[in-house]
């Protein structure tokens, strides 16, 4: 029976991380008399031996607070042959009977390998604004981000109409367009572009021209940062910088500007770009994300108590269920039928 739990937050931050930390610690201590240790800066904390005790006082007042008090990083311990062994040694040093890893796909790729290949007792909790974790219908952080992006689209509508402009709103979404689709539909976007569907720029320009021809003098385009332009030689995304992170992912950015230049050149319409960037990650979580994070936290402690390691909590049909970490470590992309529904509102 587990007596001491280590908790880490890995990958990109998102609203609700502190809410789930609060749920894990309060459930573990108050209901099951377990000890909790916070592992600092994601998997890097277990490489560098960075951990601190967590108490009820440590998580007091965290429910509405954005970010993560444990900090985070995109650390891949498998880049070094010694990495997994160091993690196991530090887990033993801190007397951890289980590790609850809170994060997205890359965090779970590491957690699943450490569990499968090295026996580290890991339980996962899905946290990502991209909503692309396999096996769960929603990850907490996504709803907060969609609401932030939706509000931005609402505000941009009025200035677009005032100046007869094409306005492009670039949102996050490297390989999955969940934010763009949900925020775009909710905000009444005229065109939504996602990584799953390479775009032909002429088709976008033709759609804008048709819209103007029927008397609409402005257009709103929502575009995910990882969109690929089919007119290009390899339908490649636009890189802001080539050096990749520890999981091989280069920094994206600039697709909005690239599309804007082409729209102006091909249509003559004044086109402006707003990049929401890290605004989407910050601030207080929505009520939905606070509740979902709390439910995930309680369920993760239950899995630890039952010794069900190598599992990740997930939301399916409004129930919290366990799925294999191997499933959570796969990427969930926007299905064609959802994008087709969104396209019914284009133009």
Describe the model.
By secondary structure, the protein is α/β, with parallel strands linked by helices. The chain has 2 domains: 4-141 and 285-328, 3-Layer(aba) Sandwich (Rossmann fold); 144-281, Phosphofructokinase domain (Rossmann fold). The chain has helices at 17-32, 43-48, 83-93, 105-118, 142-163, 178-187, 201-213, 255-267, 287-305, 325-328, 336-343, and strands at residues 4-9, 35-39, 51-54, 98-103, 122-126, 166-171, 191-193, 219-224, 239-244, 250-252, 271-275, 311-316, 319-324. The strands form 3 sheets. It has a 7-stranded mixed sheet with strand order 3-2-1-4-5-12-13, with helices on both faces. A 4-stranded parallel sheet has the order 7-8-6-11, sandwiched between helices. A two-stranded antiparallel sheet has the order 9-10. It is elongated and about 70 Å long. The model has no long low-confidence stretch (mean pLDDT 93).
Which structural category do the helix and sheet elements fall into?
Answer: alpha/beta
Q: If you consult CATH, what is the topology of the largest domain?
A: Rossmann fold
- Rg over CA atoms: 22 Å
Determine the fraction of residues in helical runs and give it as a percent range: 25-40%
Distance between the termini: 59 Å
Under CATH at level 1, the class of the largest domain stands as Alpha Beta
Number of helices: 11
Mean pLDDT: 93
Q: Provide the succession of SSEs.
A: EHEHEHEHEHEHEHEEEHEHEEHH
Count of discrete structural domains: 2
Shape field: elongated
Assess the beta-strand content as a share of residues: 15-25%
- Strand arrangement across the biggest beta sheet: 3-2-1-4-5-12-13
CATH architectural category of the largest domain: 3-Layer(aba) Sandwich
Number of strands: 13
Give the low-pLDDT segments: none
Instruction: Tell me the major beta sheet.
Output: 7 strands, mixed
